[in-house]
Each structure stands twice: as structure tokens, then as C-alpha cells.
Amino acid sequence: MAILRICHFPDDPVLRQNAKRVSAIDSSIQRLIDDMIKTMQEANGVGLAAPQVGVPLRVIVIQMPGGQPMAIINPEIVERTGEQEVTEGCLSVPGYIGEIKRSAQVIVKGRDRQGKRIKIKADGLMAEALEHETDHLNGVLYIDHVESRDKLHQVERPIVPECEHR
Known about the structure:
The chain is of the alpha+beta class. It has helices at residues 27-42, 124-137, and strands at residues 47-49, 59-62, 70-81, 84-89, 96-102, 105-111, 117-123, 152-154. It has one domain: Peptide deformylase (Peptide Deformylase, Alpha-Beta Complex), CATH 3.90.45.
């Protein structure tokens, strides 16, 4: 497994593109998932989308604190309910956090890394992570949801590798 370089806004246009659906789950997708998990863990992230590592494909990985990592291929949010106010950051927007509104619960459909259809019903942090990472696949960043500049705060910039195209 390799640690991939994470793309940063506004330097890399892949972060603003719509990612392409994965048509076949082959060894290259398995390797990408493994590398994304390793990269996410190394950067102390909760989630990571393939465009964040320069790969414009609809693949996300998520790992809740204390949980096991999971991959979702071609995720699609099919239902959103409620609303929660959250303070979010992003590995691709280092040095900032923002106060935004997210859905309180989501239902996501997609495929796991073996290609099996999955359906995930989530709330709290998991719902937030699923929405955040799925946004990345549509070229949307959390900063697009910040209602005003006074809800975006600068924080100490973490050390995260810069973008490297594969």
C-alpha cells in the first residue's frame, strides 16, 4: 500500500470535476481503495474521496473513530432527512474549518469493494462523512456550504502531502 498525495483547493481542478462511475471493480480499483485507506489513516482523516488523490472516479473510503475502514464504489445518496449544524474540515482545504448544515440522516446506496450492492442508513458523524465525501465526487467542497465568511475559521495548518497525479 502506498500513501498518495492529497490534492489541495484551489490548486487542482480535479477537485471541481464530476467524477466518473466505476464500471468494473478490478485490481486497479482494489489497489486504489487500499492506497486511499492508508492515505486517509496517515492523514488522520475520517473519509477520503478518489478526486482528493487526483483520481476522478466515484470511490470513497470512510473510517469512523474506533471502527473499521469501508469503501463505497459509485455511492449515491437516495434519501436525506433532518438537519444538523456541524463544524467541518477537509484534507483538501487544510488550515480551515467551517460551520455548515448537513443532513441529520442519510441513506446511501452503492457497492462494496467486492461489488456487492450495499445500502447504508446513517446519522451523526457517519451521515456527515457520507455527505461530505459524496460531495467531493460531484466537485463540491464543504466551503461551498458555508453561509458567510464569519463561519469559516483559520486553524493551524496540518502537514498533508500535496497533490500528485497518477
